[in-house]
Design brief:
22 helices, six-stranded mixed barrel, single chain, 4 domains, Rossmann fold, nitrate assimilation, Nitrate reductase, Dimethylsulfoxide Reductase, domain 2, N-terminal domain of TfIIb, binds iron/sulfur cluster, alpha/beta, seven-stranded mixed beta sheet
């Protein structure tokens, strides 16, 4: 490892999980540079990572607990939270309370939150903003592989001869992985890149072929591919012994009638390229996941890789990239309402028994809890009476955000743990708890290719702020479970998590980090990035090259899927298809990235991409304001007239909130429509009407 001065930690933003080195800059601040030894980035950084040091100021930080808007001491706040949650459970049952947490949390934070809700409160009502990020991938993985397993690694993108990017603006949303792909293509021009995206994004600059597919048509395209694989004799018959359901999946693919919006010659070129290239990686992200048929889209992609045996070998496989820095760690600890820790299954009595015994838990839910959109609907209807929101901003980011904001405002008891008191959600809290942020606490995160990295503390927590795991443990103790939440440091939590993973792996689960169960403080401090599994059974690398899936019979399931269009209909009143997403230099609701002036220079205000033909027809002039209205809400955005979007479709970024631009809350426009299996909202295919905005 390079002998570099400074603290090695992990970037606070996306799921690439880049290593950074933080050192004093000699002027009283810090300098951040890429860690040359981290396997995710090997020294590279993107604009957001490079600006991390600019986001460390204490301006606006929440420095003490607040009860009813007034500063309070920790004892009073913790007693109030524990007391009100305990009273609510006693009066209305455990399902009357809920936690809504975040893929920004460290694994140790997440583990304690999940343990408290599922094992001790006895409800599965803990869900995460990761529901908005990759829940469809989780569901697709589980029904194909038996577990939520990412088969491949980042190296596969570099070793492939064809990389297909589906619904992924990698250049802006996972920039360092994109940089690696650019470098691989420069070194090996034979590497081909295909992008499948209704928009001509920055990523398309690298593409040999861009398929501007109709919104929601991915299943139709990948069913065409699967049918062609079968018709051309490209099925890997030797690998097929590891599969179930192939005949049904191929029959469904052959019966596919859904349109793609693509010219036949482009489809033919794609089919020829995919089928004719053995080393192919299909990368997918939010354009696949954030859909009312996201799980089926994932299955359609997995089916093609399974049928051809192109999975788990160097340069081959389906590969989902996660949005958040610890979306993957949250999946590992069971931080979604339909999962248990260590990829154990909530519906499986043996798994529940294992977890209950291991935790010495008084309770264990027997059915899944509420998924994010359902959870806030239950809040609105008064079924959730005590709600704890940790490190996330649902009043701005969930679909139908105005209704979510009103639901939180009307909830009997709302606790928010955050860095700032000014987010749209924090303003609604009865109790505000000051949380330690990036650089102020220790823990681990897992990136998109299963690499576990340390986040390390290099700053004292300001004021009275505490790490989330410590706040949650205190509440657990005060609710009556002192032994179960007697954690004094994050390494104690990781050790427990690792020991549990060994038991889960012994029952056929994939997630196994049991080698970390004996880590002492010094080894935890020194922990270098490592890819799970990390155990005597198996170490790092890829899954499934030789079969060996985590289903009861060890075979993967190819699930027959049929295409369905977006659930939200366009019509004469709402004729435009609204796509939402990220921009290059901002992160989520800008609570951190919005503090770095240079990041604001890229795109500094909420905007709407609209095609020139539509702009002319509606009298919308470049850089003028547009009123955007859906069935759920309304926003005022700046017109960005561009042929990067197709006629009839518009795109708006999701970052701005009431804190920064009250009229620019795009979450207010998104319908609360979800995938019936994954519960992930359809954030990329709304229906809106546009008008030039005129000040009354
Ligand atoms: Fe951070 Fe992601 Fe950029 Fe890497 S690519 S520096 S993890 S934001």
């Amino acid at each position: 490892m390079t002998d570099a001065p400074g603290i090695r930690t992990t970037c606070a933003y996306c799921g690439v999980g880049c290593g950074v080195i933080v050192a004093p800059d000699g002027a009283g601040g810090f300098a951040v540079r890429g860690d040359p030894d981290h396997p995710a980035n090997r020294g590279r950084l993107c604009s957001k990572g490079a600006a991390l040091a600019e986001t460390l100021g204490l301006e606006g930080r929440l420095l003490a607990p607040r009860i009813g808007g007034r500063d309070a001491v920790w004892d009073a706040a913790l007693d109030l939270v524990a007391g009100r949650f305990g009273e609510t459970i006693a009066e209305h049952g455990p399902d009357a309370v809920a936690f809504y947490v975040s893929g920004q949390l460290l694994t140790e934070d997440y583990y304690v939150a999940n343990k408290l809700m599922k094992g001790f409160i006895g409800s599965a009502n803990i869900d995460s903003n990761s529901r908005l990020c990759m829940a469809s991938t989780v569901a697709g993985h589980r029904r194909a592989f038996g577990t939520d397993t990412v088969p491949g690694t980042y190296e596969d993108l570099e070793e492939a001869d064809l990389v297909v990017l589906v619904g992924s603006n990698l250049a802006w949303c996972h920039p360092v992985l994109y940089q690696r792909l650019v470098a691989a293509k420069a070194a090996r021009p034979a590497l081909r890149v295909v992008t499948i995206d209704p928009r001509r994004t920055a990523t398309c600059e690298l593409a040999d072929l861009h398929l501007a597919i109709a919104p929601g048509a991915d299943v139709a395209l990948f069913n065409r591919l699967l049918a062609a694989i079968a018709d051309r004799g490209a099925v890997d018959e030797a690998y097929a012994v590891h599969l179930e359901g192939m005949d049904g999946a191929i029959a469904a693919a052959r019966a596919e009638t859904g349109g793609t919006g693509l010219p036949e010659r482009d489809i033919a070129a794609f089919l020829d390229l995919w089928i004719g290239t053995e080393k192919v990686v299909t990368v997918f992200s939010q354009g696949v996941n954030q859909s009312s048929n996201g799980t089926d889209k994932v299955s359609a992609i997995l089916n093609c890789h399974l049928a051809t045996g192109r999975i788990g070998r160097p340069g081959m496989g389906p590969f989902s990239v996660t949005g958040q820095p610890n979306a993957m760690g949250g999946r590992e600890v069971g931080g979604l309402s339909n999962m248990l820790a260590c990829h154990l299954e909530i519906e499986n009595p043996d798994h529940r028994h294992l977890l209950r015994t291991f935790w010495h838990a008084p309770a264990m839910p027997e059915k899944p809890g509420l998924k994010a959109v359902e959870m806030f609907r239950a809040v609105a209807h008064g079924r959730i009476k005590a709600l704890w929101i940790i490190g996330t901003n649902p009043a701005a980011t969930l679909p139908d955000a105005d209704a979510v904001r009103d639901a939180i405002a009307g909830c009997d008891f709302v606790v928010v743990s955050d860095l700032f008191a000014t987010t749209d959600t924090a303003r609604l809290a009865d109790v505000l708890l000051p949380a330690a942020g990036w650089g102020e606490k220790d823990g681990t995160v897992t990136n998109s290719d299963r690499t576990i990295s340390r986040q390390r503390r290099f700053l004292p927590a300001p004021g009275l702020a505490r790490p989330d795991w410590a706040i949650l443990s205190e509440v657990g103790r005060r609710m009556g479970w002192p032994d179960a939440f007697d954690f004094a440091s994050p390494v104690e939590i990781l050790r427990e998590h690792a020991a549990l993973s060994g038991h889960a792996a012994a029952r056929g689960r994939d997630f196994d980090i049991s080698d970390l169960a004996a880590l002492d403080e010094a080894a935890y401090d020194a922990l270098a990035p490592l890819r799970w599994p990390v155990s005597a059974r198996r170490t790092g690398g890829r899954f499934f090259a030789d079969g060996g899936f985590f289903t009861p019979n060890g075979k993967a399931w190819m699930v027959p899927v049929v295409s369905r269009g977006p659930a939200t209909a366009t019509d004469d009143r709402y004729p435009f298809r609204l796509n939402t997403g990220r921009i290059r230099d901002q992160w989520h609701t800008m609570t951190r990235s919005g503090r770095a002036p240079r990041l604001g220079r890229h795109l500094g205000e909420p905007f709407l991409e609209i095609h020139p033909l539509d702009a002319v027809r509606l009298g919308i002039r470049p850089a003028h304001l547009v009123e955007v209205e859906s069935r759920e809400g309304r926003a005022i955005l700046r017109a960005l007239v561009t042929d990067r979007v197709r006629p009839g479709e518009v795109f708006a970024p999701m970052h701005w909130t009431a804190e920064h631009a009250p009229a620019g809350r795009v979450g207010a426009l998104v319908a609360p429509v979800t995938d019936p299996i994954s519960g992930q909202p359809e954030s990329k295919a709304g229906a809106v009407v546009l008008r030039p905005y005129r000040v009354a």
